[in-house]
Amino acid sequence: MRDLLSMGARAGALLKARGEKIAVGETSAGGLVSAALLAVPGASAYFAGGAVTYSARAVRGLLELSFDELRGRGIRSSSEPYAEILAETIRRKHGGVTWGLSETGAAGPGGNPYGDPSGHTCMAVAGPVCAVRTLRTGLDDRVENMWRFAEATLALLAETLEAAP
After folding, report:
1. Closest Cα partner for 86 from 65, 111, 117?
2. Do residues 37 and 11 lie in contact, with contact meaning Cβ atoms separated by under 8 Å?
3. Tens-of-pLDDT digits for all 165 residues of the chain?
4. Bridge pairing between strands 22-26 and 99-106
5. Rounded Cα gap, residues 68 and 76, in angstroms
6. Domain that holds residue 144
7. What distances in angstroms separate CA 38 from CA 47, 135, 150, 153, one per listed residue?
8. Count of Cβ atoms closer than 10 Å to residue 67 Cβ
């Protein structure tokens, strides 16, 4: 799994050392972020749960969010504001969890219906410290983008955990 295993182990060790739990909501990474965190022995000490909210139906059913309501507030999928909402919502839905982590984008090929090109994703961390970041790979390769999205999301998580009090 390329570098995902070591990145998941790094983030897991930080969470375990802090005695904190995380919930993950991801879309275009397709579960790779959760898989990297869960591949670590003892992951149950820090991994509360997660969801691949790839469709509007999943977002409605699992997170009780409405894209129509979000659009009415000027928020669209695959944006930094949506990534922040997704991270906070997944954290809140897993009551008692310290951290929420999200990723939302367009793996490709051909971009997404919201106007984002392939290789575009936004990721966010919600918790005692919040962070958000956008990545554009410039690639149309779906699988390569999924790997890069997961790596960038795990890197943001580790950076945020290391900066947290």
Report:
1. 65
2. yes
3. 468 999 999 999 999 999 999 999 999 999 999 999 999 999 999 999 999 998 888 878 887 877 778 777 888 889 999 999 999 999 999 998 999 999 999 999 998 888 899 999 999 999 999 999 999 999 999 999 999 999 999 999 999 999 999
4. parallel
5. 9
6. 4-163
7. 7, 24, 13, 15
8. 15
Pairing of strands 120-126, 99-106: antiparallel
**What is the count of structural domains for the chain?**
1
Could you tell me the CATH number of the domain that includes residue 145?
Answer: 3.90.950.20
> Furthest-apart CA pair in the chain: how many Å?
43
User: Assign residue 87 a region: left if phi > 0, alpha if psi is -120 to 50, beta otherwise?
Assistant: alpha
Which residue type, as a one-letter code, is found at position 82? Answer: Y
